[in-house]
Amino acid sequence: MGGWTRILALTGSAVMMAGVALADDVPAKLDAARAAYAKGDVARAARELEAVLTGLHQRLGKALAETLPAAMAGWQAEAPEIQGLSQAGGGLSVSRAYAKGDSSLNATLILDSPAVDAAIGLFANPAARAGTRKVKVGPEDALLRYDSSTHAGEVTLVIGNRVLLEIEGDGITNGETLVDAAKGWNTARIRTLVGL
Fold first, then answer.
1. What is the full per-residue pLDDT of the chain (196 aa) written as tens digits?
2. Cα distance from N-terminal residue to C-terminal residue, the chain
3. Cβ atoms of 63 and 18 closer than 8 Å
4. Which of 4, 66, 3, 58 lies closest to 26 in space, CA to CA?
């Protein structure tokens, strides 16, 4: 499979993984990129593909934002934030902040990024997991780190070697708050959206 066909195939796969209809301008931008590439205008082809990727990230990000944990009782949730990670090696990040008095949580989903590989290494290396303990978040294995002296910690889990989910907390009284928040992830829907 040639480079151009491969890019289009990957882009098409990303669309199907999102599980949402294409925006009307995506096919037109793909056609424009193909035409520019055929004419040797690589810069324009790249611009068109970047626009397609940005649009797809926004659509997929909106769908993934619906899998973020709902605010627990007494907590307030902010609007989700969606960010492409091209400057950090690729991928997509969807996050949401939560607050309750002086306590805060931040839920982050990272898809297809080098950060996922780093987290996989954490699970695989017992020495790197010092200060953590394994917990269950639904059917998923996760790692909990909580420091009672700083009242801070995080729960980390990886789904299918492609998705990193993390809940970070500050000003919380125990690690179970992190686990309870992490149980709000809709991991089944995440698996569906990313094709796992």
1. 333 333 333 333 343 333 334 446 888 888 888 999 999 999 998 888 888 888 887 888 899 999 999 999 999 999 999 887 766 667 888 999 999 999 999 999 999 888 888 888 888 777 777 788 889 988 888 999 999 999 999 999 999 889 999 999 999 999 999 999 999 999 999 999 988 8
2. 23
3. yes
4. 58
Distance CA 23, CA 169 (A): 36
- pTM: predicted TM-score of the whole model, two decimal places: 0.77
Question: What's the CA gap between 134 and 129, in Å, rounded?
Answer: 9
144 neighbors 135 (Cβ within 8 angstroms): yes
Residue with tokens 């125990």: 174
Q: Residue 75 carries which DSSP code?
A: -
Say if strands 133-137 and 103-111 run parallel, antiparallel, or are unpaired: unpaired
In the DSSP assignment, the letter for residue 21 is P
Q: Radius of gyration (Cα) for the chain, nearest Å?
A: 19
Q: At 108, list the tokens.
A: 């982050």
Do residues 44 and 85 touch, judged by C-beta distance below 8 A?
Answer: no
Tokens of 47: 């611009």
Token pair 């307030």: residue: 76
* Helical (H) or strand (E) element with 40: none
